[in-house]
């Protein structure tokens, strides 16, 4: 599949330590030209290259005002189980550093047919909502933000939210202070025009999806986003690369992409390795995929015509791909 992104160089113009684990980076073109336009909920792919030659590529939500394209801002949490990207951003990127980023893509846009927007953020999941709040600012749209985090020191951008134009629409939930978000009560109080949006840790996303379903909220009114590769679980299976006839065994704990790269059986481009960029989309010729990506629509997943090699697995014992 063709690369759907334009890649371009930016320079880091500001770095802010927002919490002990989260930094905010401001990125701009060196020539001062405007950045590509984007909408709230958009992300970019950031490519990094260390001095040791290691390359990393992560997706990050744009959190700045979409009306101001002089620069972008992203928030990066230092992950305990970092694949290398978040550690690189925290430990090696400083003002003046150069990075390569993609043009924006949006898989988490506001649905403007909604009568009310109910935004639910957990931890670093606040970032896409900051850009969406700029979109909602001054509009006639009805909205509310529910932001949960572990302790006061982990409430990234708390002051900005508590004192800014959205303060009256924002509710904070702090675990260490025993202020818990009651999802059942929240969902029970929604009318049929309200849409739910959630971004954050997988347990929060799963809880919102399940609670909304129990409350009778239609699936199309629940929107979610998480930048983390799906857990690599499930039995081993065989992948056949149709163009060469090569057969590969994909073991439990390994992705199809990793199996292909390890064997050097084919060249596959993948910018994100998290199932969000779409660059490793590959046609399925035989068999069925177990889809874990966020890029394909439910209809496209059901059609079983293509899959994302970086996160999705085989539902059948044998999978034939157009590679």
Automatic annotation (TrEMBL):
Task: Look up keyword NADP and say if it applies.
Answer: yes
Q: Which CDD domains match?
A: fer2, PDR_like
The pathway it acts in is: Amine and polyamine metabolism; carnitine metabolism
TM region(s), chain numbering? none
Q: Which reaction does it catalyse?
A: (R)-carnitine + NADH + O2 + H(+) = (3R)-3-hydroxy-4-oxobutanoate + trimethylamine + NAD(+) + H2O; (R)-carnitine + NADPH + O2 + H(+) = (3R)-3-hydroxy-4-oxobutanoate + trimethylamine + NADP(+) + H2O
Q: What EC number(s) would the UniProt record show?
A: 1.14.13.239
**Which cofactors, if any, are listed as required?**
[2Fe-2S] cluster; FMN
Q: Which Gene3D superfamilies match?
A: 3.10.20.30, Nucleotide-binding domain of ferredoxin-NADP reductase (FNR) module (3.40.50.80), Translation factors (2.40.30.10)
Pfam families noted in UniProt:
Fer2
Keyword Oxidoreductase among record annotations:
yes
User: Where do the annotations place [2Fe-2S] cluster binding?
Assistant: 272, 277, 280, 310
Keywords, comma-separated and alphabetical: 2Fe-2S, Flavoprotein, FMN, Iron, Iron-sulfur, Metal-binding, NAD, NADP, Oxidoreductase
Entries under InterPro entries matching the protein: 2Fe-2S_ferredoxin-like_sf, 2Fe-2S_ferredoxin-type, 2Fe2S_fd_BS, Benzoxazolinone_Detox_Enz, Beta-grasp_dom_sf, Carnitine_monoox_B, FAD-bd_FR_type, FNR_nucleotide-bd
Q: Which domain of life is it from?
A: Bacteria
Primary role: Converts carnitine to trimethylamine and malic semialdehyde.
PANTHER family linked: PROTEIN YIIM (PTHR30212)
Q: Which family does it belong to?
A: Belongs to the PDR/VanB family. CntB subfamily.
Output this protein's name. Answer: Carnitine monooxygenase reductase subunit
